[in-house]
Amino acid sequence: MNLANNPATVPALIQNIVKNIHPEDQPFLSHKVKNEWIDITYKQALEKINALSAWMLHIGIKKGDHLALMIENGPDYIYYDQALQQIGAVNTSIYPTLSEADVEYILNDSQSRIILVGNPFLFRKIQKVANNCPALIRIIPAFDEFEKHISVQALNAGIIGFKQVIAEGTSLLSQYQGDINIAREAILPTDISCLIYTSGTTGTPKGAMLTHQNLTSNVWASLEQITVVEKTDVFLSFLPLSHVFERTATYHICLAMGCKIAFAQSLELLAKNMGEVRPTIMNCVPRLLERIQDRAMKTGTEAGGFKAKIFLWALSIGRKYRYALEAGKSPGLILNTQNKLADKLVFSKIKEKTGGRLKFMISGGGALPKNVGEFFGDLGIKVLEGYGLTETSPVMSVNEQDRQVYGTAGRVIPGIEVAIQNIDTKQIYTIQTHKSFKPDFESEEGEIIVRGHCVMKGYWNKPEDTAAAIDKDGWFHTGDIGRFFKGNIQITDRLKNMLVNAYGKNVYPTPVENTYLKSPRIEGVFLIGDRREYITAIIIPSKDALQTKFGLPESFFEQEETFIDDTEIVKWIAEDIRKYSNELAKFERIKNFKVKRKPFSMDDGEITPTMKTKRRVIEKKYAEAIEDLYAAEADDAL
């Protein structure tokens, strides 16, 4: 695939589809209305998109203006985004889960002029901060009967419903269609397409400026790496489009190839929607895959007896079959026959719950534990792990469908350079590209840095932060620690997460946490130990496992006490802490821990919208409990 011959702006992608890939009456989007899945054709979508563009031009929106969205995934997001993109405006997506203070900061920092709002709760949130955002001129509720939710407070910004905007734009379209076409053609690949604000595990959120070229080059390079995406594929979208991973890996990939996008109703209804939509491709995050694995293992083994033996036998056969294929060998007649039987008895039932048509899933947004990837591989479900950041548009690497190395984030995509740099001396150990790939190459460990078409233009309004992130030679410093293993990028941890114990030993939390997360009794691990003599942790137990083992009522998890002190529960968790500690070096092992009753949450400011823990916030919030872990004898719990 020649990157130079492909559309280089976001609005050019959809124009290319209706010109060269699909007729206008081809289904483009699908969403569930009441109890029925409704398809939306390219023609229907473009009519709304053009109407919105006409309205935007009519009220004075011009190229370079920033327009915000705070809305869940759905067709309205696509209409609004495509409408602003084709007149050269800039998308500023805001996570619906952010606090009022963060929303106000982003609206003011970006100087957003309009905001599309998805539901009554978000509408109330915007009304509370709107008068503190002088650039804001319009608030557009995208739901019916929004008038009931208008506050008594007078607002400087006008309020107009999304349906009315489309109706007004439709009447204006004949007047502005020529201007829309001119504006679309005037967009340069180097123009900013969107501002995506980093989730801010530390400090103030920063708006990454991603250009049209950043986004489209990333799409075409990813498709050159994963060559099995076709125009007939159906993606099920459930990760937030306000995050760059879903934006690129679902939305823009589908715009490039002409694939259909179906929008899941919610995370809670995802399993049901998978069975209804029967997607061929979907993007996911490691935590979801871990939950699917836990549920499958529980379902397959909890009954015990013959059923459990069949399930475990099938997994062992799947593993042997996978090993043979990965080694480039023929599985042979006996193993082939056994695997077909295992698929019929066990694997097909699990696959059917995904709709039965999945070609593969792409995992991103965090490192996928090796054992989770291998579990799906044993089932015959391909999960391709990728790697990237908001600032890299995002894809830097992804596993190839025919050459997968579990526990790695895949081969470097075409057109960029990825290097490993010594953390202390800044010496670059190696520079790798797509073309330099060798399946047996391994490097030393260091910070991962990158340069090329995927690297952002910079941080909006933050030249000092931009200079700190992108050095004079054009290398963007990811802050991730990793190496090359079998030619693929392997992530070790975040530079900022690294713990240095009292004896100078470096402990990278992620691989240690992933070791303990193999336990079905543990849902989350937060390691502590920077400048301390030993490692301790806050453990989030598996709620399902606790209820199954101890018969606990729902009210147990709603109690006010932050930590669970029940001796039997603590001992039960400690059994698996001891078990999995044997896989780690002595200085990496958990010596003491507390069991937290509830998971860390966004509402409490403990995790980001992309589910990353805010280390400084947690350490400060639970400082007293952490000190107790070091005041007690290390062997009290273990």
UniProtKB/TrEMBL annotation:
UniProt KW keywords: ATP-binding, Ligase, Nucleotide-binding
Domain of life the protein comes from: Bacteria
Lineage: Bacteria, Pseudomonadati, Bacteroidota, Sphingobacteriia, Sphingobacteriales
UniProt-recorded Gene Ontology molecular function terms: ligase activity
Species assigned in the record: Mucilaginibacter roseus
UniProt xrefs under Pfam families: AMP-binding, AMP-binding_C_3
Gene3D superfamilies the record matches: N-terminal domain of ligase-like
Name of protein: Long-chain fatty acid--CoA ligase
AMP-dependent synthetase/ligase domain ranges (all copies): 25-460
Cited PANTHER family: AMP-BINDING DOMAIN-CONTAINING PROTEIN-RELATED (PTHR43272:SF33), LONG-CHAIN-FATTY-ACID--COA LIGASE (PTHR43272)
